[in-house]
Amino acid sequence: MNLTRSVKTTAFPLLEFVLLRYASTNQSTTKPSLLAALSVSTMKEWIEINRPVDVEADIPLKDQAPTEVRDEYDRSSKNKFIAWVSGDSNLIGCIKNNRSISAEFEFAAAVELYEMEPAKGSGYVGLDIKSKNGECLTVIASSRYSQKSLQWLKQVQPILAKVFQLEERYEYHGKDA
Predict the structure, then answer these.
(1) Which of 38, 103, 118, 158 stands 20 to 30 A from 70 (CA)?
(2) pLDDT tens for each residue of 150-164
(3) How far is CA 169 from CA 99, 134, 155, 159, in A?
(4) At 30, is the secondary structure helix, strand, or coil?
(5) 93 and 107 Cβ atoms separated by less than 8 Å
(6) What is the pTM for the complete model shown?
């Protein structure tokens, strides 16, 4: 497999990401000048997402990524927020330092953004991978409510939905009263 690298930017200043896509030589539509020097043979997708320091939303303190993902992360992406799809497309997930989440692709249906605005309570925001029946398979990132975290999650949601090949959903939980 060849590694192709596409640099993408969005209209959002908080978010720039690098998409590393693996394609077999007969399926590649990228120019040879875009070939990168990395070799992540176990991943179909490996995406670096900029997470500003002042954003509170983060991956829960879990260790769910397979060994191959953790090993590749240690080799090539230390201290970065990475979204990945396994080479066989069975698992999807995110990793950052000692935190990682994963879900089985066959059960996943959507990347859902949710928020509860502060009122008497502090509120919260988050991004989940939801199953076909609406069950939360895993929390991608969450925190107490803040505009910076909410804006970052709104920017990340369509990227993850596209990479994971899932639909986007939004759920408003009202005011934290």
Answers:
(1) 158
(2) 999 999 999 999 999
(3) 24, 11, 13, 13
(4) coil
(5) no
(6) 0.77
